[in-house]
Amino acid sequence: QVQLVDLGGGLVQPGGSLRLSCAAAGFTFSNHIMTWIRQAPGKGLEWVSQIFNDGSRMSYADAVKGRFTISRDNAKNTLYLQMNNLKPEDTAVYYCAYGTGYEYWGQGAQVIVSS
Fold first, then answer.
1. Residue of 100, 115, 111 whose CA lies nearest to 35
2. Residue 101 phi, psi (nearest 5)
């Protein structure tokens, strides 16, 4: 059974940092591209970042480029998102996901950026 558990959300002041993690189980993590997607309050889903299965290539949405870093530890079956210089517009629920059509999702981690 596929499990994706999103951890690490919280409340942070503008300019602060948070690291999200996504613990995976029930599938061969190292075989799959992994993605972070977010949903801000009252808005639609927004693709944030993606990493190749071996960690060799990463891509980012323009809104987070230079501030967020995606990484993975295939030995620990864990995906990460380091978020620096957070802005109020980064407030959202963040989900890890995988699959051709993002069939599998974590439960989401709430990130609130506010002073």
1. 100
2. -115, 30
- Residue-wise pLDDT for 17-70, tens only, equals 999 999 999 999 999 999 999 999 999 999 999 999 999 999 999 999 999 999
Please name the residue that has the structure tokens 């709430």.
110
Helix %, strand %, coil % of the chain (to 5): 5, 50, 45
Pairing label, strands 18-25, 78-83? antiparallel
For the four alpha carbons of 5, 18, 83 and 113, in that order, the dihedral sign comes to positive
Q: Which of 50, 82, 48 lies closest to 67 in space, CA to CA?
A: 82
Q: What is the pLDDT of residues 70-113, one digit of tens each?
A: 999 999 999 999 999 999 999 999 999 998 889 999 999 999 99
